[in-house]
Amino acid sequence: MKIESLRRLRGPNVYLSRPAVVARLDLGALAGVETCDITGFPERLLRALPGLTEHHCAAGAPGGFVSRLRGGTYFGHVTEHVCLELSQLIGRDVSFGRTVSTDEPSVYQLILECPVDEPSDSSVPRDLLTMAVELVTEIVAGRSFSGVALASAASGIPQMQHGSAADRLAELAAIASLAEREATGPSTRAIIAAARRRGIPVERCGDLSLIRLGWGNRRRLAWAAMSDRTSGVGIDIAGDKEITRRLLADAGVPIPAGGQACTAAAAARLFAELGGPVVVKPRQGRQGDRVTLNVMTGAETTYAFSAAGEDVIIERQLAGRDYRVLVVAGEVVAAAERIAAHVVGDGRSTVTELVDRTNTDPRRGAGHSRVLTRITVDDAVLRVLERQGHTLAYVPSAGQKVWLRETTNLSTGGTSHDVTDRVHPDVTRLCLRVAALVGLDICGIDLRLADIADPLAPVRAGDEVSGGVIEVNAVPGLRMHLAPVRGRAHDVGDAIVRAMFPAGSDGRIPAVAVTGTNGKTTVARMTAHLLGDSGKRIGLTTTDGVSIDGREIFRADATGPLSAQMVLGDPGVQVAVLETARGGLLKRGLGYDWSDVGVLTNITADHLGQDGLATIEDLAHVKALVAERVRDGGTLVLNADDPWVRSLVDRPRVRADRKRIVWFGLDPRQPVVVEHLAKGATAFLLQDGWLVQATGARRTPLVRLADLPGAYGGAALHAAANALAAAAAARALGAGQESVTRRLADFDPAVANPGRATLLRLGDVAVFVDYAHNPAALAATLRTLHELWGAERCVAAVTLPGDRRDDLLAACAQIVADGVGRAVLYDDEDPRGREPGEVSALVEREMRARRPKLLSMRADSYREAITSALSLARPGEVVLVLYERLAPVLRLLSELGAARAGSAPLPTTPAPGALRSPARELVRGVLQG
User: Fold this and answer.
1) Taking every annotated instance into account, which residue ranges of this chain make up the domain ATP-grasp (predicted)?
2) What average pLDDT score do residues 106-114 get?
3) What is the C-alpha to C-alpha distance for residues 858 and 841, in angstroms, rounded to an integer?
4) C-alpha dihedral sign at 29, 33, 39, 43
């Protein structure tokens, strides 16, 4: 078996609402073979991965997959389940998988769920799938594996194995380690979970703990337990223990006596003044690193000074217990007593064995990846044992506690007990004062007290404090509060999210998603224009690029998830209008989880034969994702004239009962519209020469079709459809009727929508520049030109995209043949996988088969094609210019002297305004699929 390709879908997609990977798997020699054909395979597989017995598969209950396995199933399906089980073994909590056949008998498509917050560039999905393929292949070949050994490897516990088994164990252990390193830590995970419960969008930045919550101008940033409004000054103060000491002491906060030492002599003097026991810690240390407690002699002080980095704080060690109090936005939200790392004897095991047993706790992991940290035996542990008179070989009696660390940090293996309900009001007030003095919105305050439930005595000048604040922590760890070993857990992530998004805000800005086959770029641009009176900054993505507040910031095909995130992540954007195309949906998924308004312009034949799309029904399934991801209570704007768009309301996941449906269309007699209006609902229609908003029996005129910019006096009916869709979307977002009417009338297509039905003049010849590149779009464009000039007065410079299927190119060629009098054909610089000249040759062949006497020729470039087409045009005629890249075409036309048509009169003697009868039938067939 071989993995041919793998792509990551980062957001909601056509398979499920969560991230996934899609892999093409070639079964090779196993094609056509089922599991029941290989003696002993099911038993060997289940011995290696006993967790497969719990997989439901199509049966919907545990054991479903085993039934299929023993009854006979194909090996793509087996590989899917093995990959899911390996994921579970290493702690990737995923369960969705699907295996789909392709048009190649030996090739299957595997869709496998990914954790929501796994980095989008992680190699873990591919690594797991690769291992699944290798494991299945080896089991087919007769090798056996121990399920215990695989599970142990996934937990990071070595097992003695040899040969192939050892390779697989090492491989799984390496993947598990990588997945754990890339996973968010408990603090970040808690904030993400709290935000998602509130419906706040969350995006993780790569493999960092940096997360973006919300969209646009409501966007906030968090990095672990630090927000984008956490004071940088406060962080620096908390990071410098001497400055913290001075600031708190000046404010009368109880802190232990002590000071800073930068030389061994200064350290010795401080120790002599204070007397033992003292604590020696780095001035700018963190997480208990290089901290020495219970220093009782000058020699120990010298050693601890050197170990701490020779810029240290030495302070009296207060008696009592260690506590951490978490303050968020002026509120104490949790408190914990911290217990240093230790083991408890059983009368039989050595300290080493007890440590190993403690580390098997699944809550313990490396670093901060899990709620507890594994205990690492190092020199510090040996010194602590030595002070107690023990070694690693010591066997403690049953119940005897043996300390392994003096510091209580969780990062060194410590644990915590929740004491939130026991905090005395005096302690609460003290902690709130300290947080305010340091200037932190989120901080952890470490205290040493006899009991956190006792009242605090006031600080008396000259007296030693018996308990007080020993440290202030910016970006405090949340683990001890999320999963204490004893006591109640606290959802401190929710407290942080509540502080960042008060009053129940979900952090979202209004968002419109526009998709369809044709017109989506125009509708997106028009929608952004119609919302322009709101005074809000609008972010827009289209086929041509990304713009913020009307200014282009990024030029590319910007209809995928990365472009959507560019807009949604911009802190200046207040409304998002997102063109969402097929390619991005299939290759990367959606760039957002929900929209407020979804617009479906039409669904016609295009891109068939690409990315597994064989029929218009397949295309409709992809486009339907935009409709399915309109939030409950949002608005779905649908084209009533398009049968495929009409069919979307019957899809279960569209849930029309939870969304407001607004139809638009050119035919007010369309039955779905008539029924819709009879219920008092709203539609946007072309009626009696006017674009109107219809609600029940009421009609509100918006603009006359003859006055609509870009409709060319009503000749371009598709422009009316685009305007109706945009008006419906803008009104759904709250744009006023008067504003929409005014903005419709002042929309300038040549400026706001270049390259879409752009009319220029070159002497006494008209030039019509358009992006039409599929049968329906070409038919609509030529119908417009025929209304204005007639078929025989149309000349065309034609290019078509090479990645379209031959039958679609042939249909386009036939429409052009029936729609123009003369044609010049050329290939774009990028043939999209075809040979140079192949597309134009195919188009020429189809055109001549359709109309043998049609004057057509081929050119080598767009420059030659356009100049040749212009030379063929006679005064009063029009040259249709189709393009792949607009900018060089417009530059050439400008060089030749073409200028905007402006108010120049259109032809006054148009020919009959319809395509030839055979072409009408062809277009009807294309539109209906």
Assistant:
1) 245-501
2) 95
3) 8
4) positive
Determine the structural domain holding residue 904 and report its residue range: 758-927
CATH code, domain carrying 836 = 3.90.190.20
With a CB cutoff of 8 Å and minimum separation 6, the contacts of 525 are 540, 542, 752, 753
- What are 11-15's contacts with CB under 8 Å, separation 24+? 11/561, 11/588, 11/589, 11/590, 11/591, 11/592, 11/593, 12/589, 12/590, 12/593, 12/625, 12/629, 13/585, 13/589, 13/590, 13/625, 14/585, 14/586, 14/621, 14/622, 14/625, 15/96, 15/98, 15/111
What is d(CA 730, CA 712) in angstroms, rounded to the nearest whole number?
Answer: 23
Residue 473 and residue 313: Cα distance in Å, rounded?
A: 16
Residues 515 and 435 in one domain: no
φ/ψ (deg, to 5) at 678: -65, -20
Global pTM? 0.88
**Cis peptide, bond prior to residue 754, ω within 30 of zero:** no
Residue whose token pair is 């071989």? 2
Residues 742 and 776 in one domain: no
Is the same domain home to 607 and 554? yes
Which residue is listed with tokens 């380690």? Answer: 177
With beta carbons less than 8 A apart as the criterion, state whether 579 and 543 touch. Answer: yes
Query: What 3-state class would DSSP assign to 519?
Result: coil
Greater confidence (367 vs 143) lies with: 143
Q: Is the same domain home to 570 and 629?
A: yes
DSSP string covering 631-646? EEEEEEEEETT-HHHH
Q: What's the CA gap between 268 and 410, in Å, rounded?
A: 30
Where residue 739 falls among pLDDT bands split at 50, 70, 90? very high
Q: Are 750 and 900 in contact (CB under 8 A)?
A: yes
- Containing H/E element for 554? strand 551-555
Same domain, 705 and 804: no
Q: What share of the chain is helix, strand, coil (3-state, %, to 5)?
A: 40, 20, 40
Q: What is the pLDDT of residues 699-716, one digit of tens each?
A: 999 999 999 999 999 999
Q: Of 446, 475, 502, which residue sits at a domain end?
A: 502
Question: Do 910 and 789 contact (CB within 8 A), yes or no?
Answer: yes
Cα separation, 599 vs 636, whole angstroms: 6
Query: Residues 618, 612: contact at Cβ < 8 Å?
Result: yes
CA distance 496 to 21: 32
Taking the C-alpha atoms of 60, 65, 67 and 68 in order, what is their torsion angle to the nearest 10 degrees? 110
Clarify whether residues 46 and 18 are in a common domain: yes
Is the residue at 256 inside a domain?
A: no
Q: How far is 82 from 52, CA to CA, in rounded Å?
A: 8
Same domain, 706 and 739: yes
Mean pLDDT of 326-335: 97
Residue owning tokens 């906060």: 253
